[in-house]
């Protein structure tokens, strides 16, 4: 449990056994830089501003959590728990309180995450069918393109299915992705029945031994009953043709979405048994606190994260690294007041950050070229 | 709905206030907390909420509670007024250039709905103003974004200018504008690629387009479901481009749309349009006042208050109170009362206007038979004058006759008489200021609280009136 160890270390002041940052971690680190600034830094500022713990403090804390889009219920849950905890442990000083807060956050995240399968499911044999659902404009098509690219490079036989027959240009968008990543796309003319497209694709996948079938569906708002029924039908068609399918129903969620994300997840789950969440656009200023809320309320694991616009910017969701990334500012910030050994770590990190800041103008022109090529918006 | 509306929150918090004629600071603090949380639930940015609460608090402390409003309603009214103030009072029209073409530029994050909105807007201008708009496809990044605009353009029969994905957006806009001039198009709508407001390269590109095109209108397109980050997005785009207006999309979902308030309050820029559906015609002019109610989740409480004040005949109501006090409430009075309620409109509509009731799933499948009241009236009409004035004489024989006369089963007659008697009892208690047993009468939860609030108000009023009357009587007697 890397993450919890890190937290523990931050408080106990134990010397970290090794300080190896994997590439994966760095990516999260970079992608979540903005998110972290929003969250960890805010919490730190909060601690710095309050000498004593009173009602105002908790009000501020609630606000801070809510501002991270953690969700109202979760924020209340946390602050209620903390009120209790602070009373019980008689924590008055800033250090004590922040310790209690971190403990509690970790506890909540850990408790809610038990018995959840965070990995993508694959079929035991035959094609694995993944159905992508979500509201309009969250990035379903883009995610499928990225995922197809990933499986393609892994040497799998991938098929993409353009079942968004509604939105103008959606089929072309997927066909374009197909050209870019060199993956065949099953498509029918616009406005045809999406379930029939899916049926054809599943037949094709079975006959031609495809490994992975990625089904793109039209964006739909969760309160549109007819469209949700259509989704149910698509799901039913898949199950009829491949009894244990769809193996994954992935709900794409925009990380900038507020509390409505919870309602979205709830409604989509009712219709299609969502097995996982793809959190897209996490490279913006979105705080990603919604992950806590989703965990807490719905017990749907986040399986994939969109951390940028490049083709390989879709990553498996690693909760420990994500939470660590989110709370890093908090943990290290705490450490500087808490333990001497951590101070070393902080001072090591500080120059690294300024370095990257200096490099920005150079790398940006390079990046701009890459993004111009790979820019994938939707 | 997953979340309680502001009004319900307020009602829970307001219990303590109901006996007070004036709101004190301590009372207000508790209520402000509820407002704060309700706004946060609706995804209004927390800094915006803070400012907002400050204003409302200042106005609420010491505010004289109007005779006709309970403290809860009073605060809701203040909140609503302040909200409308922030949101703007009236719909803001599109900026227009004195010389054609009027240039409109769409900007925003990925997936906000720029392309769809651009086409909807073109369609709106075309059908409503007989305009001849042209669309410029400036999104060269997202695969098939140009195709999307072309298809939409075909659907609404509006020309789309595109140069493929190999030409820079600035160049596309330049040539597009030249062509628009040639064709004498009166509107040019530029669709741009979605981008993060922190992506400097792409933001500079927008800046370049702006410098070149000198648009009359830069519309920031924002997904109504956006959470707390709406403020950063709005500040980012506004800071760089000085947008002139906002389009709120996907409002046909069930989001509260607190982002609208956040954006409006940090940029001060008007929200001009809202996307309300997937059809090409689903773009409407934005009405700030309606959005205020939506954010609050209030239902149409203010209309209800107005309606009650307008339709409920003051004089008759007073006479009724008199009767109640004398305990001479009879079937004639019951009839009058029923007619007054009926005058306010169909029961469903009235109930829907009660906050918390409009979206109440329990009520969704409940049908109010408008004939129910008619049937009760029929029963009363079948009574003799004597029976109506003196309900106590209704023996089984009379009841049988009434049932036959009104064409209703005897059980229904019995039930109606029983209910009438209960009501009479209750009124007697209320006019004596005794509230015991009232709780069950109105069921539990929201309805109960609402009813109790209005009831206690009524009692207070009654007592006042009684006092006045007694004073008058005393004076009269004194003179005699």
From TrEMBL, chain A:
<dbReference type="Pfam" id="PF00448">
    <property type="entry name" value="SRP54"/>
</dbReference>
<dbReference type="InterPro" id="IPR042101">
    <property type="entry name" value="SRP54_N_sf"/>
</dbReference>
<dbReference type="InterPro" id="IPR036225">
    <property type="entry name" value="SRP/SRP_N"/>
</dbReference>
<comment type="function">
    <text>Involved in targeting and insertion of nascent membrane proteins into the cytoplasmic membrane. Acts as a receptor for the complex formed by the signal recognition particle (SRP) and the ribosome-nascent chain (RNC).</text>
</comment>
<comment type="subunit">
    <text>Part of the signal recognition particle protein translocation system, which is composed of SRP and FtsY.</text>
</comment>
<dbReference type="GO" id="GO:0005886">
    <property type="term" value="C:plasma membrane"/>
</dbReference>
<dbReference type="GO" id="GO:0005047">
    <property type="term" value="F:signal recognition particle binding"/>
</dbReference>
<keyword id="KW-0378">Hydrolase</keyword>
<dbReference type="GO" id="GO:0006614">
    <property type="term" value="P:SRP-dependent cotranslational protein targeting to membrane"/>
</dbReference>
<dbReference type="GO" id="GO:0051301">
    <property type="term" value="P:cell division"/>
</dbReference>
<keyword id="KW-0675">Receptor</keyword>
<feature type="compositionally biased region" description="Acidic residues">
    <location>
        <begin position="337"/>
        <end position="346"/>
    </location>
</feature>
<feature type="binding site">
    <location>
        <begin position="134"/>
        <end position="141"/>
    </location>
    <ligand>
        <name>GTP</name>
    </ligand>
</feature>
<dbReference type="Pfam" id="PF02881">
    <property type="entry name" value="SRP54_N"/>
</dbReference>
<keyword id="KW-1003">Cell membrane</keyword>
<keyword id="KW-0963">Cytoplasm</keyword>
<feature type="region of interest" description="Disordered">
    <location>
        <begin position="335"/>
        <end position="378"/>
    </location>
</feature>
<protein>
    <recommendedName>
        <fullName>Signal recognition particle receptor FtsY</fullName>
        <ecNumber>3.6.5.4</ecNumber>
    </recommendedName>
</protein>
<dbReference type="GO" id="GO:0005737">
    <property type="term" value="C:cytoplasm"/>
</dbReference>
<dbReference type="InterPro" id="IPR027417">
    <property type="entry name" value="P-loop_NTPase"/>
</dbReference>
<dbReference type="InterPro" id="IPR000897">
    <property type="entry name" value="SRP54_GTPase_dom"/>
</dbReference>
<dbReference type="GO" id="GO:0005525">
    <property type="term" value="F:GTP binding"/>
</dbReference>
TrEMBL record, chain B:
<dbReference type="InterPro" id="IPR000897">
    <property type="entry name" value="SRP54_GTPase_dom"/>
</dbReference>
<keyword id="KW-0378">Hydrolase</keyword>
<dbReference type="InterPro" id="IPR004780">
    <property type="entry name" value="SRP"/>
</dbReference>
<dbReference type="Pfam" id="PF00448">
    <property type="entry name" value="SRP54"/>
</dbReference>
<dbReference type="InterPro" id="IPR022941">
    <property type="entry name" value="SRP54"/>
</dbReference>
<feature type="binding site">
    <location>
        <begin position="191"/>
        <end position="195"/>
    </location>
    <ligand>
        <name>GTP</name>
    </ligand>
</feature>
<dbReference type="GO" id="GO:0006614">
    <property type="term" value="P:SRP-dependent cotranslational protein targeting to membrane"/>
</dbReference>
<keyword id="KW-0963">Cytoplasm</keyword>
<dbReference type="GO" id="GO:0008312">
    <property type="term" value="F:7S RNA binding"/>
</dbReference>
<keyword id="KW-0547">Nucleotide-binding</keyword>
<feature type="region of interest" description="Disordered">
    <location>
        <begin position="461"/>
        <end position="480"/>
    </location>
</feature>
<dbReference type="InterPro" id="IPR004125">
    <property type="entry name" value="Signal_recog_particle_SRP54_M"/>
</dbReference>
<feature type="domain" description="AAA+ ATPase">
    <location>
        <begin position="100"/>
        <end position="408"/>
    </location>
</feature>
<feature type="binding site">
    <location>
        <begin position="249"/>
        <end position="252"/>
    </location>
    <ligand>
        <name>GTP</name>
    </ligand>
</feature>
<dbReference type="GO" id="GO:0048500">
    <property type="term" value="C:signal recognition particle"/>
</dbReference>
<keyword id="KW-0342">GTP-binding</keyword>
<keyword id="KW-0694">RNA-binding</keyword>
<dbReference type="GO" id="GO:0005525">
    <property type="term" value="F:GTP binding"/>
</dbReference>
<feature type="domain" description="SRP54-type proteins GTP-binding">
    <location>
        <begin position="101"/>
        <end position="297"/>
    </location>
</feature>
<dbReference type="InterPro" id="IPR036891">
    <property type="entry name" value="Signal_recog_part_SRP54_M_sf"/>
</dbReference>
<dbReference type="Pfam" id="PF02881">
    <property type="entry name" value="SRP54_N"/>
</dbReference>
<protein>
    <recommendedName>
        <fullName>Signal recognition particle protein</fullName>
        <ecNumber>3.6.5.4</ecNumber>
    </recommendedName>
</protein>
């Amino acid at each position: 449990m890397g993450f919890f160890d890190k937290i523990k270390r931050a408080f106990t002041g134990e010397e970290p056994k090794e300080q190896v940052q994997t590439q994966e971690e760095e990516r999260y680190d970079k992608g979540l830089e903005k998110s972290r600034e929003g969250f960890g830094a805010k919490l730190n500022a909060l601690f710095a501003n309050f000498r004593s713990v009173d009602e105002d403090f908790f009000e501020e804390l609630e606000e801070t959590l809510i501002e991270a889009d953690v969700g109202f219920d979760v924020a209340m849950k946390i602050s209620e728990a903390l009120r209790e905890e602070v009373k019980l442990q008689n924590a008055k000083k800033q250090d004590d309180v922040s310790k209690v807060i971190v403990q509690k956050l970790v506890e909540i995240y850990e408790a809610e995450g038990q018995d959840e399968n965070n990995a993508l499911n694959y079929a035991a044999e035959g094609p694995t069918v993944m159905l992508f659902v979500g509201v309009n404009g969250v990035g379903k098509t883009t995610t499928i393109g990225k995922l197809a690219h990933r499986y393609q490079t892994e040497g799998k036989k991938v098929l993409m299915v353009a079942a968004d027959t509604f939105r103008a240009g959606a089929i072309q968008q997927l066909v374009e992705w197909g050209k870019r990543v060199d993956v065949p796309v099953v498509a029918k003319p616009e406005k045809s029945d999406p379930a029939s497209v899916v049926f054809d694709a599943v037949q094709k996948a079975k006959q031609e031994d495809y490994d992975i079938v990625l089904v793109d569906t039209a964006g739909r708002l969760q309160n549109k009953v007819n469209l949700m029924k259509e989704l149910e039908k698509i799901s039913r068609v898949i199950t009829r043709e491949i009894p244990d399918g769809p193996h994954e129903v992935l709900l794409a969620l925009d990380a900038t979405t507020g509390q409505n994300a919870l309602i979205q997840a709830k409604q989509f789950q009712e219709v299609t048994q969502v097995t996982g969440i793809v959190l897209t656009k996490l490279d913006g200023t979105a705080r990603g606190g919604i992950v806590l809320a989703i965990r807490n309320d719905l017990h749907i694991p986040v399986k994939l994260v969109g951390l940028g616009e490049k083709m390989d910017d879709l990553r498996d969701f690693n909760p420990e690294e994500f939470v660590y990334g989110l709370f890093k500012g908090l943990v290290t910030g705490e450490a500087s007041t808490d333990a001497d050994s951590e101070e070393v770590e902080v001072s090591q990190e500080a120059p690294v950050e300024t370095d990257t800041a200096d490099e920005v103008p150079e790398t940006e022109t390079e990046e701009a070229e890459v993004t111009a090529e790979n820019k994938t918006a939707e | 709905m997953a979340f309680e509306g502001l009004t319900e929150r307020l009602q829970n918090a307001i219990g303590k206030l109901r006996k007070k004629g004036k709101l004190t600071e301590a009372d207000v603090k508790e209520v402000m907390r509820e407002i704060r949380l309700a706004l946060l639930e609706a995804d209004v940015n927390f800094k915006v909420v803070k400012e907002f609460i400050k204003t409302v608090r200042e106005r609420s402390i010491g505010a004289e509670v109007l005779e006709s409003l309970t403290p809860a309603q009073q605060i809701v009214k203040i909140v609503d007024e302040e909200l409308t103030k922030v949101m703007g009072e009236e719909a803001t029209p599109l900026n227009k250039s004195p010389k054609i073409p009027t240039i409109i530029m769409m900007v925003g994050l990925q997936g906000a709905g720029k392309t769809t909105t651009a086409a909807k807007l073109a369609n709106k201008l075309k059908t409503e103003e007989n305009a001849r708009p042209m669309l410029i496809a400036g999104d060269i990044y997202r695969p098939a974004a140009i195709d999307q605009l072309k298809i939409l353009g075909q659907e609404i029969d509006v020309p789309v200018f595109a140069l493929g994905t190999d030409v820079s957006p600035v160049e596309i806009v330049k040539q597009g504008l030249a062509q628009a001039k040639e064709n004498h198009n009166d509107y040019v709508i530029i669709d741009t690629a979605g981008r993060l407001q922190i992506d400097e390269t792409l933001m500079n590109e927008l800046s370049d387009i702006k410098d070149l095109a000198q648009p009359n209108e830069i519309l920031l397109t924002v997904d109504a479901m956006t959470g707390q980050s709406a403020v950063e997005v709005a500040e980012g785009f506004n800071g760089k481009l000085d947008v002139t207006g906002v389009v709120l999309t996907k409002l046909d979902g069930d989001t509260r749309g607190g982002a609208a308030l956040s954006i409006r309050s940090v940029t001060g820029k008007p929200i001009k349009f809202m996307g309300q559906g997937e059809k090409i015609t689903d773009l409407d002019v934005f009405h700030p006042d309606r959005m205020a109610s939506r954010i609050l989740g209030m239902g149409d409480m203010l209309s209800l208050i107005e309606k009650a004040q307008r339709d409920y005949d003051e004089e008759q109501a007073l006479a009724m109170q008199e009767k109640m006090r004398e305990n001479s409430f009879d079937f004639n009075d019951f009839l009058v009362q029923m007619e007054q309620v009926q005058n306010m409109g169909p029961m469903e509509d009235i109930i829907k206007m009660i906050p918390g009731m409009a979206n109440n799933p329990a009520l969704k499948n409940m049908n109010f038979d408008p004939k129910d009241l008619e049937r009760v009236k029929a029963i009363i009409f079948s009574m003799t004058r004597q029976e109506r004035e003196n309900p106590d004489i209704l023996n089984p024989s009379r009841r049988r006759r009434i049932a036959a006369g009104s064409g209703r089963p005897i059980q229904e007659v019995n039930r109606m008489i029983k209910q009438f008697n209960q009501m009479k009892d209750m009124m007697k208690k209320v006019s004596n200021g005794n509230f015991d047993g009232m709780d069950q009468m109105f069921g539990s939860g929201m309805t109960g609280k609402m009813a109790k609030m209005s009831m206690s108000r009524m009692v207070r009023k009654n007592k006042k009136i009684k006092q006045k009357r007694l004073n008058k009587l005393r004076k009269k007697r004194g003179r005699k």
